[in-house]
Every structure is written in structure tokens, then in C-alpha cells.
Specification:
single chain, about 675 residues, 5-stranded parallel beta sheet, 4-stranded antiparallel beta sheet, flat
Amino acid sequence: MEAQVAQCAERLCRQEKEIKFLTAEIDRLKNFQSSDVSPSLEGLREENAKLKYRLNILQKSLREERNKAEPSKSMININSHLQEIFGMAIKSAYPELENPPLLVTPSQQPRFGDYQCNSAMSITQILLKTKEQKVSPREIADQIARNIPDNECVEKVEIAGPGFINVHLKKDFVSRQLSNMLVNGVQPPAIGERKKVVVDFSSPNIAKEMHVGHLRSTIIGDSMCRLFEFVGYDVLRLNHLGDWGTQFGMLIAHLQDKFPDYLTVSPPIGDLQAFYKESKRRFDTEEEFKKHAYQCVVLLQSKNPDFLKAWKLICDVSRKEFQKIYDCLDITLKERGESYYQDMMADIVKEFEERGFVQVDDGRKIVFVPGCSIPLTIVKSDGGFTYDTSDLAALKQRLFEEKADIIIYVVDSGQAVHLQTVFAAGQMIGWYDPKVTRITHAAFGVVLGEDKKKFKTRSGDTVRLIDLLEEGLKRSMDKLTEKERDKVLSPEELKAAQTSVAFGCIKYADLSHNRINDYIFSFDKMLDDRGNTAAYLLYAFTRIRSIARLANIDDGTLQKAARTTEIILNHEKEWKLGKCILRFPEILQKILDDLLLHTLCDYLYELATTFTEFYDNCYCVEKDRQTGKIVNVNMWRMLLCEATAAVMAKGFDILGIKPVQKM
């Protein structure tokens, strides 16, 4: 198999070289003006036609080779496929254009076809500016349309308005793609080589409880990881815990005073938040305690075994509390706190010093980064390291040891200036090239209460995340009981539905908003089963799954039908649903590019509402009106139901939402 792949790759390379040569040859013949030998115009046209014919044959062969090389189980990104087709058409029509604009989008209205290519207007401007040729967009659109190569997906094109090219897909192409998806499962689109991705998210502080502010980073980061994992990337989910620093001095000092035998008897610290507040109060009011706390920091940083044990005890108490939340939300993380990078920091400072980037300012060592307004402080006046130093150390470790191709920091918008300065410093010192390695701050806004102010308790305290999740469970059960689901579901099914709705709604309410914006937290809105909410989508999903069950059609029958039954798309609602299902890969590609997960939520809502239109207009199961007995099952429509549910299930999985079969 490897030998075949190598042969295929070699042939692809040869053919692509010949295509480039032939394209240049066509260009030369087009621009032929004079030479020592003057062939007739007819001779030139004949030669030109032959070259174009050979070029089209080679392009077709190239596409066939690519199809053989790519795994057939992958879902096709139809938008990308059309861009490839129109790219070839534009290259054939205007071979002299370097990187011509490719604008292909789904049509908003059925009368404008299924997709639109809107490149003609941009090409008009390019020809006018670079060649001083005045050509109408409609004429350019006509030239593009004439040069569309043979392909499996375009039925016809129409030129509309000033130069829009309306694209109509072949029904048998869409039907085949749906059948492939049902046979192979919902597979990711082919997206090229496997990459190493590091996602830094959640990142609470030891000895402090996770609050509503940690909710967004945790949910958004987990969903991004799920998407990268689905498309086949190697993902490292990092929890950059705040587990080092001066606050541990006061915590250890307080631990020694309160539980002097902590080295031999495990201290019963139940409420670490209260323990932290007590130590902070003493630190602010007792001078002797403050001095002792500073001594503890020094001994901890020098890795005194007794003080390291105290530090680990405190970290373990926090870890257990964090894990309760991660278990609730089904979040997996690899802990790698600030302490992990401590031994690397001296080398970071040395590297910046040796490169001449360090300045001394009032005893501090600082680094000015071009284009950044605030310098990085890499050594404090007392000789200690800072967050800037640990973040630089973390960045370098991820680049050189993890060998990451993509690094994403899911951190609130307030850290934007700091992170951009750290990234710019890494680039300045030559750790990475942004054209090769993608480093992104996936920023997000704050969570607001219904009064549009920062979300807090009635007493003005920050909302504890564990309290929020417990309230979600209570409200979810109230909603299910109100709808009398407790009367039709078994206790186990009711419990599963409660958890699915509670945590699904909390996650979806966050992910369905553009992460860059602030969003208003409202249990009433997120538990509403109308509109773009998890409650609506989860109910819709269970209804779709129940169609086959109520018609006594099992999974085996559906799998057999997927291989043998043609999916008919003659009704306009069947056609609309089929196309909507197949847009899933292009939605995923968009999110891989911009990391905005609300696009997936919008798509799932559109898919659910498109399914409702289909189900209301197309009988899947026909029953006798008198007896209610099933008289006919339209199996191709049952397959459309199954395809819709399969894509919704995968969408839920990427969002970290667990649907249930009964609700």
C-alpha cells in the first residue's frame, strides 16, 4: 500500500509540473505577437485548442489520483470542492492571473441555486488595475462558466445579475455523499497532515474555589479540544494551574500554626477557601506572621522537603475540589501548573540577556518588545521571577519540547495585552515563525447577571461554580417534572435526562454566543425548549431518534438500508435537508480557522429546524387513519432522519453535550 501511495504521489508531482508548463504555454500562445516564423492564425488556434484539451485531461486525471489518494471515508467539504473546481475554471479562463480571488458560498435562497461563485466582480477590478483591461463582470462570469472542468458534483451553472454564478448541485452526488456518511459514520473531512495542538484552558488557582469566571475557559477550551481531536490532530489539553507564588508562604505558615503535626497526620482542611481567607487576614494584620510567611516562600522555593510536603498537601485539597467540577462537566485535562516551569526560568532570563534584550529599571530586569506598549518584567527587584517569566518559559517549552504546530490560550479578554506581548517576545527572540506555527489567544468576555452587571451572588460575592452546577441540576429536574417526564421515564432515564439537560444547557448557553462578547447567564433562557437552546435541540434529537424506534426499525435494518436504498431527494424539503446535512464539514473547517464555536451551535439549530420542515411535509411512516397501524415506511426518508441524528450527535459530542435516547 505504501508503495502505491509513493507511486501515486510521484505521478501527482509529475502531472502538476506538466500542468504548470502547459498553462504557461497557453499563456505564451495567447500573447503570441511576432517571431521569425509567422504561423497562421488558424494554426495558432488549433495548437491552443490542443493544449487546452490536454490540460483538461491532465486536470481530470489529477483529480482522480487525488480521490484515490484521499481516504474515501472522509466527508467531502463541498464548499472546498467547489472552490477547487472554480479555481481550475478561473485558471483556464485567465491563466495570467496570480492567485485569483475564489469566493464560493452557499446560496441564501433556493432560486439562486445551491452555491454561488462571486469571483467575477473581483477579477474585473484586478484586470482593470493590472492589465488596464475593462471587462464586464458578466463577461468574466461567462468565461469562467465555459471553462468549468468535468466534475461529479455540478449539475449546471447560471449567470445572474452583474456576474454572480449560481451553482446547482447534482442530486445523485448529494445522495451518494449522504449514503457514504450513513455507511461510514460521520467522519471528519480530509484536512491535510496531522498536527500537534496545545490548548491551555481552565487554569484555576490553588487554594481558591473555581468560580463562574472559570466556566467559560473550561467549556470553550474543552470544545476546541474535542474538535481538534475529531479531525485527527494530536491534542495536549493543559491545565495551567496557579500553583506557585508568594501566596503559598502565608498558606504554609498558617498550616504550620494550625496543624503543627501536618507532616505525620493529614490535616483536616475541608474548606480551603475559608483556610485561604484566614491566612490572608493574618498576613494583612500580623507583622510576625507576615515575616514568617516570607521565610516560608524562600524555603519552598529552595525545595526544602518539609515545605514541599506542605505545598503538596494544599495542592491536593484543591485538586479534589476541581476534579468534582471536571467530573460533572466531563472535562479531561493534564495538569501542568506554574511550578512545572520554575527550573526553566533562570535559563529564559539568561537567553534574553545574552541576546541583548534585557534592560535594568529600578532593580527590575525588563524586556521591551517592538509594537507593545508595556514591557515584560522577567526578574523583580528582589530577584524573584514573575508571571511574565513563567509564561515565557511555558511558551518555549510548548514550542521546543512539545513541538506544537498550534498553541491556543483560552483566557479572558483582560489578558490580551499581556499574552500578545509574550507571543511577540517569543517571535522577537526567534522561537517561532508565525507563518509556520500558529499561536492564538482565544479571548472571551465576562459572564453577566440578568441585571447586565458582573454575575455575583445577592451578597455581592463571586458565584461558586459548584453551586451553579447544583442549581442547574435542581432547575433541570423542576423543568422535567413540570413537563410530567417523571411519569413516563424510569428513574434511571429521568436521572440521565436531568444531567443531560442541566449541564448541556449551561455549556450550550455559553458556546452559542460569540465567545468574544460578554453574555448574560440566565437559567430561564437556557432551559427554555423554544429557540436556539440546548433544551430545544436535545428534545429535537430524542424525537428524531424515536421515529425509527416507534416504527420498529432497528439499527441493523437502517445499516442494511444505507447500503441498498437510494436516498431520493425529489421533494424540495428532502433536497434542503440533504444539503444542510452535508454542510457539516465546511462548518467545522470554518471553526478550525476562526475558533468561534457559536457557528456550530447556529448550524445545529438550522439543521433541527430544517428537519422539522422536512418532517412536517414528507411522510416517513404512513399509518392507517382508522387503526393507526403502519401501512408503509419510506425508507429513504428514514435514512434522512438517521443522517440528521448522526450529525447532531457528532455536533453535540464536539460541544461536550451528552444527549439521551429518551427525554
